[in-house]
Amino acid sequence: MHSSMLKQIKSPIEKELIAFEKHFRNSMKSHVPLLDKITYYIVQRKGKQMRPIFVFLSAKIWGNITPASYNAASLVELLHTATLVHDDVVDDAYERRGFFSINALWKNKIAVLVGDYLLSQGLLMALENEDYNLLQIVSKAVKEMSEGELMQIEKARKLDIEEDIYFDIIRQKTASLIAAACKAGTASVTDDKDVQEKMRLFGETIGIAFQIKDDLFDYGDNIIGKPRGIDIKEKKMTLPLIYALSQAQNGEKRKIIRAIKNNSTKKEVIRYVISFVKEKGGLDYAEQKMYNYRDKALDLLNAFPESESKESLRDLVNYVIERKK
Fold first, then answer.
1. 95 in helix, strand or coil?
2. Whole-prediction pTM value?
């Protein structure tokens, strides 16, 4: 169902996405052969293009796609790709979506420099086109992403984290970029600050639902079957676990936290934590929260003018919730 659903979602902006590919490739061009080889590789391993889709659909609801819309999409993708390349170095990751990471193929030093290059290319592209408002929107998101990531690392040491802190972290870490994509797309066609802010909020809301969905994947579901337990291994406190701990007696709570702190990579510990979370209703609770955010996003969307693009955004909201990976 999913490739056909994505195809349908993309249909109002199909030609824009094709033109964007070229625009994005050009935005990474360099006269250093090594860099060109790496950026070519980056273009090859592109994912579902969720962020450009958000940019173009958001733009099209409020007006006609402009050159600034392409700049907005490229800017979001450049800065996002830069953070991913750096993330893989930070996480010592050798794979992303079935492709080798840059650091796996070319070493950490090169990956860090490529991330820097992409970041500066994004900044320069915005400045050359005098897209100062787009630059401000997207740079702010990158700042928030770094803060969210650092806050998460800091909290992972203690492992005792309240739900509101968790929402602060994911709002910054994940939702801020989808929010920026929606706001930048809108800002590329209208100067109406009120409309831009509403679209930003829409993006943030769906971004939070997106992250909760990711948290749930860690526990497996009927489709995937087997749980991943990656978050548990990395001692990440996600919503299902936070809720389950809040429902536990102090003794049990301490036992779980100690198990994660000391032996989070052991299979039996991961199994123990997963069954604890399920038993305490952590998955149901997180799912309910995810649906609340989805409904809030759809409510925001309902207030916007009807169009094909709006329909696609509505489908995209549901896709985010129902995706299988």
1. strand
2. 0.91
